[in-house]
Design goal:
4-stranded mixed beta sheet; 5 helices; globular
Length: 151
């Protein structure tokens, strides 16, 4: 990759290069991002995915209560044999076991909700931060979406 050439083309983004184990530690404090609502994980290996998940230990002010996550390495060709016992899926399993109030889970049924179902639908997960101050705030646009049983 021609890093300097790429950096010159970026207008609204910052390219951060280096070992994820080192760069993830300083990301939120150095760059102070707006609340993160989406992360694409493409780390290829269990160890780098575990390192990337350390981002989720940062203050909740850096995240929306739920963060949509694209997990690139949980589905692949027949030779890849992905399972919850290796790679990215193992990193998710261990993250969930080690965190009581934070979980990463596949968005179930997403394929059935899409107009054009696609393979990437099964690669979409959500990071739940249950103790986030806004986790229980109702955001559905129609406040009267439930059947009123008081009348």
């Amino acid at each position: 990759m021609e890093i300097e050439k790429l950096k010159k083309r970026l207008q609204k983004a910052t390219l951060i290069t280096g070992q994820i184990s080192e760069t993830v530690q300083m990301f939120t404090e150095q760059y102070k991002p707006s609340p993160i609502g989406f992360i694409a994980f493409d780390h290829d290996y269990y160890s780098s995915t575990v390192d990337a998940f350390k981002l989720f230990s940062a203050s909740s002010k850096f995240f929306l209560p739920r963060v949509i996550c694209y997990m690139d390495d949980c589905i692949g060709g027949d030779w890849e044999l992905h399972s919850k016992y290796a790679g990215e899926l193992l990193a998710i399993e261990e993250f969930n076991q080690n965190n009581i109030n934070k979980k990463i889970a596949r968005i179930e049924g997403l394929t059935h909700k899409r107009i054009f179902p696609s393979r990437w639908n099964d690669m979409m997960y959500v990071f739940h931060q249950f103790e986030h101050p806004l986790y229980c705030k109702h955001i559905y646009p129609d406040k009267n979406w439930q059947l009123n049983l008081t009348n």
